[in-house]
Amino acid sequence: MDKPVITHSQLANSAIETLSRPQKALEAKWFYDHRGSELFEAITQLPEYYPTRTEIAILEDKAAQLARFVPDGGILMELGSGASVKTRILLDALPRLGAYMPLDISGEFLQLSAAQLRRTYPGLQVTPIVADFMQALPPLPGAVDQPVTVFFPGSTIGNLEPEAAIALLQRIRDLPQVHALILGADLIKEESRLIAAYDDAQGVTAEFNLNLLRRLNFEAGANFDLAGFKHEARWNAELARIEMHLVSLRAQEVQIGAERFRFETGESIHTENSHKYSHASLSQMAEQSGWQLAQSFTDASKDFSVSVLAP
Ligand code: AVJ
């Protein structure tokens, strides 16, 4: 088996550090344990959560145009290879692809989806890489002598604050043989639709958010009372982002191992940022990281964008 990228003490240490800040916080990457991944999958099916289905529709509609940015024999590298529905749309349009390189933090998940892809695309070289790409991009295996097109869908970039997003885009830009970046990004829209997408009627997103506390209880020796916190989605217009918070319903104290954390009534833990973009802000972010926004595809309602960045 692969060596784990994340250990329990990393989770505890990270939580202790971010809960010690004046604005208590938890890192969004901890959402995705087994249950969290299942809940996210359920979120993508919600009527209010438009991003996944809209991005898939754009990819299906523009697959041939996107395929032009992947040269014959080239490498398609995917960051955060998810459930691979989106990957398959591109692979179907790339019969002469040299290799597919999925990067994901979960080794188990990667091996499973790699095996499935090899079955569907028998001639395709599939080279999975276990990596926390939000932190650093690993050296690519062997001598990469073919052009690399990076696929970064899902508006995962939106989890990062502008500085970190630019730094990640710069690291991608610096990859040897980099040819293009296909970037999925969610767009600014009416506040009520944004809030609904992150505070759905069925409460799946609330469960997803609260699952962080459940995970800390199970994996980091914490004693959160899940009934003592409520899910909240806020639109921060100034920073153009949805913020998810867990709001303490009463004054309480919580322990993680030997560390104690006090909560006032109404005090929140900031658990996620999901930045939303405009054509102008995307183009600016591209230029600040050494890219040019070559093309941008959206759906008819301009809800989501799939952009091609060129070095
Ligand atoms: C996977 C980070 C793109 O921000 O929309 C969905 C995560 N959080 N609902 C997003 C998420 C709450 C999602 N990303």
What does this molecule look like?
There is one protein chain. With 311 residues, this protein is of the alpha/beta class. It has nine helices and 13 strands. It has helices at 8-19, 34-44, 51-67, 85-92, 107-120, 162-173, 191-198, 204-219, 279-288; strands spanning 75-79, 99-104, 125-126, 129-130, 148-152, 178-186, 229-236, 241-248, 252-256, 259-263, 268-275, 292-298, 304-310. Strands 1, 2, 3, 4, 5, 6, 12 and 13 form an eight-stranded mixed beta sheet that branches. The chain has a three-stranded antiparallel beta sheet with strand order 7-8-11, covered by helices on one side. α5 links the parallel β2 and β3. α2 (34-44) runs antiparallel to α8 and α3 packs parallel to α4 (85-92). The longest helix is centred in the N-terminal third of the chain and has 17 residues, at 51-67. The radius of gyration is 20 Å and the shape is globular. N,N,N-trimethyl-histidine binds next to β11.
**Mean pLDDT reading:** 94
Unreliable runs: none
Which structural class matches the secondary elements?
Answer: alpha/beta
Number of helices: 9
Which term fits the overall shape? globular
Bound molecules: N,N,N-trimethyl-histidine
Q: Give the H and E element order.
A: HHHEHEHEEEHEHHEEEEEHEE
Q: Give the number of DSSP strands.
A: 13
Radius of gyration: 20 Å
Strand content: 15-25%
Q: Whole-Å distance between the termini?
A: 37 Å
Question: Could you give a short account of the major beta sheet?
Answer: 8 strands, mixed
Percentage of helical residues?
25-40%
Oligomer: single chain
